[in-house]
Write a structure and sequence with these properties.
Number of domains: 1
Bound molecules: fe (ii) ion
Distance between the termini: 43 Å
CATH superfamily: Hemerythrin-like
Number of helices: 5
Radius of gyration: 17 Å
CATH architecture: Up-down Bundle
Number of strands: 0
Order of helices and strands: HHHHH
CATH topology: Four Helix Bundle (Hemerythrin (Met), subunit A)
Length: 144
């Protein structure tokens, strides 16, 4: 089942919220291409785009946190690093499976629910538990 952005996910910063919306779309795209792993290039392209944008988004979020003087920046950066490591490990595992043209597509198909479940939790847990702690920051006027 695809996931959709919902108001409970709103942090209150337009750039961060629109990045989260796009990351959700990318996870839905991964879910879609996993139905057709016989086209490994599509699976790889979707995973690579998710990785590229997650990296870009985490950097953007950290820049915003610096600009707003966010107190938990170090912890948050650390969490982003761990999230990217977990994503790297997952992508590496899928690509390794797909490298075998005989059994790869079937292996990936069999794991597709587990993969998309992991990615949904990977993003949504971070947004709700960690990013949401920033919401207070954006409710106050920003003085630079
Ligand atoms: Fe974050």
């Amino acid at each position: 089942m695809p996931i959709f952005w919902r108001p409970q996910l709103k942090i209150g910063n337009e750039e961060i919220d629109s990045d989260h919306r796009y990351l959700i779309l990318l996870i839905n795209t991964v879910e879609l291409v996993l139905r057709f792993p016989e086209n490994p290039k599509h699976v790889e392209a979707a995973l690579d785009e998710l990785h590229r944008y997650a990296e870009h988004h985490f950097e953007r979020e950290e820049r915003i946190q610096i600009a707003w003087g966010y107190r938990h920046l170090d912890d948050h950066k650390n969490e982003h690093r761990k999230l990217l490591e977990a994503l790297d490990a997952l992508i590496g595992r899928v690509k390794l499976a797909l490298a075998d043209p005989t059994s790869g597509p079937e292996t990936v198909k069999a794991q597709s629910q587990e993969i998309t479940g992991f990615l949904r939790k990977w993003l949504i847990d971070h947004v709700l538990k960690s990013d949401m702690q920033m919401a207070d920051l954006f409710r106050k006027p920003h003085i630079t």
